[in-house]
Amino acid sequence: MPNVSSRGHFSSKFGFVMAAAGSAVGLGNIWGFPTQAASNGGAVFLIVYLIMVFFLAFPMLVAELTIGRYGQLNPIRSLKAVYPKGGACAVGIASMVAVSLILSFYSIVAGWLVGYFVSSSMDLLGMKNTADCLTDFGIAGNLILTIAFMFLTMYIVRNGIADGIEKWSTYLMPLLFSLFLSMIMYIFTQDGAIEGLKMYLIPNISNFGINIALNAMGQAFFSLSLGVCTMMVYGSYLKKDANLPKIAAQVALVDTGVAFSAGFLILPAMFVAKENGIEIFSESGSLLNSDTLVFTTLPAMFETMGVVGICVSIVFFLLMIIAALTSSISMLEVSVACVTEEFNHSRAVAVAWVGTLIIAISAIIIFNFDSLFGFVVQLTTLYAQPIIGLFITLIAGWLWHRNIVLKELKKGYPEIEEGFFWKVWPIYIRIICPILMLFVFFA
Fold it and tell me: Which keywords fit this entry according to its UniProt record (predicted)?
C-alpha cells in the first residue's frame, strides 16, 4: 500500500481554493452557463441556478472533499476506506474511466480554442492564409491541436501538486479574473450590450418553468466538477486542519462568481453581435448555434470590429484556454493518482501512460468524429456523471457511519456539531441530494 505521508499536499488553503475553483471553472461556466441562461429566460435561469448551487452542488462538494481527505488516497481507495465492500471500489473505477473519457473529448474542444487563439495572433501579424488553415479543422489539424493541449496539461500534472497544479492555478486563476474584467469592461462600451445586460439581470417570471429549473439544476451540478471524483482527489491532498465546509463554500463562491461574470460577458456580446448584423435568435426567439456559439457567432462579431476585434479575439480565446486548462489538469490528476497508487508507478510514468491513452482515445474520436463525439459527450455527461454522483451521495449519506463523518469534519472545524451546518447537511446528503439527482438524471 502506498505511503500516505509521502503524498503531495497543497501548501496553502489559497492554493487549494484556486486549484479547486480552477477545476470547477471550465468551459461549462464560460460557454455553457451563459448559453443556458440565454436559452432559458436569462435572469430567471440565473436566480434558479444560484439557488441550485447551494441547495444541490455545495452539499455534494462537501461530501466529495470529506471522503477524499478521510482516505488521503486516490478515489478508488478513498471510497473503499469509507465502505470496504466492492461496490464503493467500483464507483471509484467508474469515475476514473468516465473522467478520462470526458478529458478525451474536452481536449479536442480545447484544441479548437488553441487554434482560434493562434489564428487570431496570425491574423494580427497579417498571416491571413495561415490563420485560416488553423481554424479549418480537418483530421490532421484536430489531432495536432489536441496533442498540443494535452502535452501542456501533462506537463503541469507531471510537476506534482505544490509545484505543478497549485503553482499554475495560483497564476492562471488571477489571470483569468483579470482577462474577464478587461473583456467585460470593453464589451460594455459596444452598441447593443445594454440590451443583453437587461435580459441577464431583469427577471421575467412568466419565463419560469420546470425545464428551466431542471436545466439550472443540471448546470449547477456539472459546473462544480461533481460526479467524477476530481474534487475527491483534490480533497485527498488537503491537510487535516482544513475547514472543509468553509473551503467548499469558497470554491462554490469562486466558481459561481466566474459563471456569473461569464454572463456579463457572453450575453452582452451576443447582442453586440446582433447589433453588428449577425443573426443570434430565430424567429421563434430561441438561441441559434448555442452549441457552437464560441466558434461561430463570437468570431463573426470579432471580424466586424477590424484590428480591435482581432486583439479582443486573442484575449477572449486566451481566457477560454485558461479555463479549459485549469479543468483538464484536475481531470488528468484523477487517473494519474489512481495509476500512481494502484500500480506503484512514479508520477512521471503515470502521466506519460495516462496522457498517451487519453490522446489515443481522442484520436479515435477525431477519426470517427460524426459517430463518436456526440456519443461520448452524452455517455459521460448525461449518464455516467449523474449516476456516479448519485452513488457518491448514497455512500456518503447512507453507508458511511455518521460518527466517523463528524469526527473527520471536526479536525478542521471543532465546533461543527453545535452549528447549523451539521444539523442540516447530513439530512441533505442522505435524502434531498439523491432526490434532486434523480430529477436531473431522468430529465
Answer: Membrane, Transmembrane, Transmembrane helix, Transport
